[in-house]
Amino acid sequence: MKLIRYPHLITEDRPACIATIGNFDGVHAGHREIIQHVIKYARQHKVSARVITFEPLPNEYFCKKFGKPAPKRIYPLRDKALHLQALGIDEFICLNFDTALAQMSAEDFITEVLIKQLKVKHLIVGDDFRFGKGRTGDFALLQSMGASLGMTVEDTNTIQFDDERISSSRIRDALSSGNISQATTLLGEPYRLSGRIRHGDKRGRTIGFPTLNLRLQENIVVARGVYAVKVTGLDDKTYTGVANLGTRPTVEGTELRLEAHVYAYQGDAYGKHACIELVHFIRPEQKFDNFDELFAQIKKDSLDAKQLLNTTTS
């Protein structure tokens, strides 16, 4: 899969494509149905399957403009791209959401971006997709303008779970409260975060709990705390472990990290790209009065994680 961050800088003529467009924060079960339809249609017509999105997300742009806190993300951009690649998308195109794009009319967005720049021949969108200045663009406008510009358009029905629409906001609520089970159901797959293993403070190895360290973006929504986890990417095996996602307040940490102690792994993981699946939320992150208290809690967390993971796999 190609990740294209600035498509307006590409000068060569692009072939026609089948595409979908939206934020796709989380690539949840509803998104997956749309994406799978895009891929099936593209394969039938022997053209490229593309997902078109925005960076930053429009909500993030407008919140920053008006000095408001932006909704936190379900996944960093890299993890979103990995999920799209796994589904079979050919190109992941990120439009730079800046002042020019924010002020662009819905009509100009269709003609200048979708038709001229991205060569969309068939567009598949969710039934709630809105675009253009003032969010005036909708499915009806796409369909009416597309008919005269050589672009066909179809919408998709809302996907529901427990009589409610599957949405990114529901998944954010689940993740921020530590409800990993519900988040997994709404996402349609386990919740995972990935990244390159970096050197940490190496305090853990002095007490028999060495950890793999992933640095994360601060705007990730998942609850800060301790989790039972599964880890892949270290070799060809899947490992279990216990992890802390947070800033490590007991040692005056400031960076958001995911630190995982992996059971039964003895190799050198530095520099490898690991994928850490959050399986169970154990407790919120907390600050301890001293390192001895922290060490005692780490031992308890490790035992709790093993018990939860054994229950899950039994």
Automatic annotation (TrEMBL):
Q: Note the Gene3D superfamilies from the entry.
A: HUPs, Riboflavin kinase-like
Using the record for this protein, list the coiled-coil segments as residue ranges, or answer none: none
NCBIfam families named among the record's database cross-references: PRK05627.1-2 (NF004159), PRK05627.1-3 (NF004160), PRK05627.1-5 (NF004162), PRK05627.1-6 (NF004163), ribF (TIGR00083)
Organism taxonomic ancestry: Bacteria, Pseudomonadati, Pseudomonadota, Gammaproteobacteria, Thiotrichales
Drop me one GO molecular function for this one: riboflavin kinase activity
**Does the entry feature the keyword Nucleotide-binding, yes or no?**
yes
Q: Which keywords, in A-to-Z order, does the entry hold?
A: ATP-binding, FAD, Flavoprotein, FMN, Kinase, Multifunctional enzyme, Nucleotide-binding, Nucleotidyltransferase, Transferase
Name the family the entry cites: Belongs to the ribF family.
Role, per record: Catalyzes the phosphorylation of riboflavin to FMN followed by the adenylation of FMN to FAD.
Instruction: Give the EC number(s) under which this enzyme is classified.
Output: 2.7.1.26, 2.7.7.2
Q: What PANTHER family does the annotation carry?
A: RIBOFLAVIN KINASE, RIBOFLAVIN KINASE/FMN ADENYLYLTRANSFERASE
Q: Which reaction does it catalyse?
A: riboflavin + ATP = FMN + ADP + H(+); FMN + ATP + H(+) = FAD + diphosphate
Keyword presence, Transit peptide: no
Q: Which domain of life is it from?
A: Bacteria
Query: Which InterPro entries does the record associate with it?
Result: FAD_synthase (IPR015864), Riboflavin_kinase (IPR023468), Riboflavin_kinase_bac (IPR002606), Riboflavin_kinase_bac/euk (IPR015865), Riboflavin_kinase_dom_sf (IPR023465), Rossmann-like_a/b/a_fold (IPR014729)
Please give the biological process terms from Gene Ontology that the record holds. FAD biosynthetic process; FMN biosynthetic process; riboflavin biosynthetic process
Which Pfam families does the UniProt record give? Answer: FAD_syn, Flavokinase
Question: Boundaries of each Riboflavin kinase domain copy?
Answer: 186-310
Please tell me the species this chain comes from: uncultured Thiotrichaceae bacterium
Pathway annotation: Cofactor biosynthesis; FMN biosynthesis; FMN from riboflavin (ATP route): step 1/1; Cofactor biosynthesis; FAD biosynthesis; FAD from FMN: step 1/1
This one is known as Riboflavin biosynthesis protein
